[in-house]
Amino acid sequence: MQKPVVAIFDVGKTNKKLLLFDEDYQLVYERAARFLEVTDEDGDACENLDGLRLSVFDSLREIGKLNEFTVKAVNFSTYGASFVYTDNEGRPLTPLYNYLKPYPEKLKERFYEQYGGQAAFATATASPVLGSLNSGMQLYRLKHERPEVFEKVAYALHLPQYMSFLLTGIPCSDLTSIGCHTNLWDFAAASYHPWVAKEGIREKLAPIVPADEVYPAVFPGSGLKVGTGLHDSSSALIPYLINFQEPFVLISTGTWCITLNPFDHSPLSAGDLEQDCLCYLQYKGKPVKAARLFAGYQHEQELKRLAGFFAQPAAKYRHLRFDPQVLGRLEERFRFRLAGRQPVEPLFTGQEPGRFSDDAEAYHALMIDIALQQEQSTRLVLKTPVRRIFVDGGFGKNDVYMNLISLLFPGQEVYAASMAQATAMGAAVCIHPHWNSKSLPSNMIDLKYYARAADR
Hints:
Blueprint: E1 3-11, E2 16-22, E3 27-33, E4 38-39, E5 45-46, H1 49-64, E6 69-78, E7 83-86, H2 105-114, H3 118-125, H4 135-145, H5 147-152, E8 155-158, H6 159-168, H7 175-178, E9 185-186, E10 191-192, H8 194-198, E11 214-216, E12 225-227, E13 230-231, H9 232-243, E14 248-253, E15 257-261, H10 270-274, E16 277-281, E17 287-293, H11 295-310, H12 324-334, H13 359-379, E18 388-393, H14 399-408, E19 413-418, H15 422-430, E20 446-450
Parallel strand pairs: 1-6, 6-12, 6-13, 14-18, 18-19
Antiparallel strand pairs: 1-2, 2-3, 4-5, 7-8, 9-10, 11-12, 14-15, 15-17, 16-17, 19-20
Helix pairs in contact: 9-15, 11-13, 13-14
């Protein structure tokens, strides 16, 4: 008898995955791929949109041949801040521009001068001034730099909704994507900011639908129910909101390490925004205070440098154990206390690896740099009483990182939260009633406690 499953396409900047979960939310199949980046018309690196599109159909055909599964539904969790501009036939009109693409300074100044200034606008939209990372600014740029292309745009779809559109032909918008530092949403008014209509952009945005909505697939002979897709950080939060009612903070780690506090509803200050603190919208539409840190990317780049210097494979450090004696030596040599104040300068980042006696010491120094930045970022959204901090994603499996975080947050219980692919799981759970006849399990999340210094 074939096992009913839900298929989730989990699309990160680096890794693209197809995952199958059974009705007990056990991961029963996983397939990963990487695509070589292409370039846009300016020569800037960007996502291989054609490769991504073809992989969706190829992957569904492949799993359709697996005799042990019957796919009941499909959903998507992808990185945010990226629009696909489609014409009336649903074809992309431009490359999928990279959210790190440099933004023209004069155009940015013109926008903020016209719409009330950076501080007031950022406060209203809960969006720090981030250039291309504010996806609404990508639309503004397209209109003013390439008006002939803008005129042809039938719909501007955030990436999760474009992937859903590929299977349904139904364009839609979703609050988890709209609410992620896009410059599009007025949080006080709970609607699009007035500039969106004034610039003629509102008509290019598809209708907003509930995050748990599904549509029938046009994929031949499938009978699939297709979700509308979710922004990955908001998707990762869903299983926690379902499983835990007591206030918590989640540090969702990946390329970006994003601290999410769904229980802090106080307004953002100008100072918060300047430190890359913002608000997301969770799948039910409520604001979630968040602080972002580009720590996964930093780790990846610095690890290449470390591994190259010591002639070791980078994978070695994935399973390196925390050594308090190494921490003690570093504290003594560089005259700092981890739980006291941040070193005057980074220990590893931007420094010569040769200043360390061996690669384990160098790696601990790198992780101290990252953990201290994480503490500063997380405390921006830790202004309400919270007993637990959950860490999921790649750093949740990193013993050095987790021990350092537990030392830096003595007032909270710190847990590594192990779930079979948190962002994908969130996208699966979100559409649970549409494909799964069983009740939601209460044991989706495995927790590993990291003892505080006082408990050791």
